[in-house]
Amino acid sequence: MIKTIDHFVLTTSELARCRAFYEAFGLSFVEHDGRYELRGPDFKINVHLAGQELTPHAAHPLPGSADFCFEVAAPLSEVRATADAHGFEYVLRDAHKTGFHGKMTSVYLRDPDGNLVEFCAYPDH
Predict the structure, then answer these.
(1) Can 89 be counted among the known catalytic residues?
(2) CATH for 7-121, among 3.20.20.70, 2.60.40.10, 1.10.760.10, 3.10.180.10?
């Protein structure tokens, strides 16, 4: 029944820092009607401010509780260059993992709220 992910929600303690992190990697920020979104090529991330979450929401929304992965179109060297230029915190660099499409290489970072954000590239995808 499920086709794909349309969106998910991140809770942030500081909108400006959250926005800057994800914009650095190519997501665009949209604000409308008191709602905030980060938009990718075929998905969006709704952004809620901690303590001001829109309803309905998760039972216990907390900044820094998410762990997710983006497949990138650019080489991982560009992800690392962006991370280095902005002083973003690495968790792992060039980790060899298995993802949805098989073997991949990943760079793991922490966003300003402490969420674990993985950027992966597949050799043949």
Answers:
(1) no
(2) 3.10.180.10
